[in-house]
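Not sure how to ask, but would you mind making up any protein sequence you like and the tokens describing how it folds?
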Amino acid sequence: MAMKRVAVSAFQALSSSSPSSSSLTRHLHASAGSKKIVGVFYKANDYAKLNPNFVGCAEGALGIRDWLESQGHQYIVTDDKEGPGCELEKHIHDLEVLITTPFHPAYVTAERIKRAKNLKLVLTAGIGSDHVDLNAAAAAGLTVAEVTGSNTVSVAEDELMRILILVRNFIPGHHQVINGDWNVAGIAYRAYDLEGKTVGTVGAGRIGKLLLQRLKPFNCNLLYHDRLKMEPELEKEIGAKFEEDLDAMLPKCDIVVINMPLTDKTRGMFDKEKIAKCKKGVLFVNNARGAIMDTQAVVDACSSGHIAGNLATHQNSIKDQ
């Protein structure tokens, strides 16, 4: 259902005439039948037939094909996005709108932008546009948009699940069941209650706030680091404490959750030095972007036991490192 909400949000953004979406509307309504729109999504194959609301795949095409074509636009959907002979490259010279998703992104590089002479709009059906060379896009006068808030609930719930997986040492236990083993001590020695643990989120925007709200019933100690403090009423309701200094917050945390975008400033932010500031045995959940954490530093810290568990997004793991 998360991608269904993305599709609905995208539809509203594309069709709205409100000032906030005027640039999108202008691109699509300048002249009927004049826009070539290319969507790049992963193929779902037989899974696409199992759920009519599964629209974030190539087969579902975000659920906006009928609407776009009724407006006279040409809508081409593919999953083939890499290499000089890929389907996307066949259309790069004359497409005007490119729609993609964070989980199967079409990388909009400076070189691609240079060849996309007619490109006006790059739309991410989701959150995060780090697959776009924003400097090159700005220089070319492109509009880069995303569907802010479309999957905040999904991500916050997924983070809570990952925290419980780590704290309860669930994955090794699952492997034991699959393999027909029964070694209680091998699981229990690192299985804990979440109650009483200190959880700190680095970033307390839409997702960070929702995560903190969902953690409150577990009776955790809740900390957050952000550029801005949340509203006093909400902070009191959640019971979270603002930590202005990230380096001071990290040693207090049993669990660190990363909830910030990938930018030039945050790329590789959690390096060897930053990780060393965390307490030994810290658990990490990174549902943001993998490149925020230095891969080798994480590997070394996991090997030494300084990081006891790490569940991070590996989406675009090669490209975004």
